[in-house]
Design goal:
Layout (H helix, E strand, L loop, with lengths): L3 H22 L6 H8 L3 H8 L2 H25 L1 H13 L5 H12 L3 H24 L8 H17 L1 H7 L7 H16 L7 H17 L6
């Protein structure tokens, strides 16, 4: 009989191997045998712990999302924790590469895994906006759902388009140097308006209101 701690360690080793291989090759191209070999266990043990490859993928999703949730909610409400998290990442970016590759692969695949990850990040971002407004660290936005969608698109877009972003910055790859350059401008965009007055916002609102009235939906408030 294995001890409970032994079971937890083995389960985590299988899950981590799956996160690595799913991120590297995609879900459909990765087999249970591949994962078992990487985790140095038998394929039967993978099935014993997770039931199916789909069950293993759900466990990977849960692990990646719980890690992101814990990190994001702490950083969004505490500037000191944001500073410490960025410092930790910039000091050891390789420690996060496995999860980042998993997210990158999942969101570009036309699959339930990609859908569930995007939906979870959307819900998390919406929660951060609502918590921030209640805490007074963020302003109340007019359309939280649309704002959350834009924020998630920006974050996940950096993962998907990282190679091109790095080229634009004159970097060899999307690594610590690129992240270091992007960190301050990213928060600056959320902190200070880019436009010097509301002229463009007013014009956009007017156009959107006109379109909604033509469609018969009335203006959005």
């Amino acid at each position: 009989m294995r001890s409970i701690d032994g079971d937890v360690t083995t389960r985590a080793r299988i899950r981590d191997a799956a996160i690595t291989l799913f991120g590297r090759h995609g879900f459909s191209r990765t087999t249970v045998r591949d994962i078992a070999s990487a985790a140095e266990v038998s394929p039967g043990l993978v099935i014993h712990y997770f039931g199916t490859k789909e069950g293993l993928r759900r466990a990977c999703d849960t692990h990646v999302l719980e890690t992101a949730h814990e990190s994001a909610t702490a950083k969004s409400q505490d500037p000191a924790k944001l500073r410490d998290a960025l410092t930790e990442y910039l000091a050891n970016p390789a420690a996060y590469e496995r999860e980042l590759a998993y997210i990158r692969r999942a969101v570009v695949e036309d699959s339930e895994a990609g859908d569930s990850l995007f939906d979870a990040y959307f819900s998390l971002t919406l929660q951060i906006l609502q918590d921030g407004a209640r805490a007074g660290t963020m302003r109340q936005v007019g359309d939280p759902e649309a704002t959350a969608a834009l924020m998630v698109t920006q974050s996940l877009g950096l993962l998907v388009l990282g190679r091109h972003v790095a080229r634009g910055l004159g970097q060899q790859g999307f690594g610590v140097e690129a992240i270091d350059r992007l960190a301050v401008p990213a928060v600056d965009l959320y902190t200070h308006p880019l436009y010097t007055d509301s002229a463009f916002l007013d014009a956009t609102r007017e156009a959107a209101t006109t379109l909604e009235e033509k469609d018969g939906h009335g203006p959005r408030h």
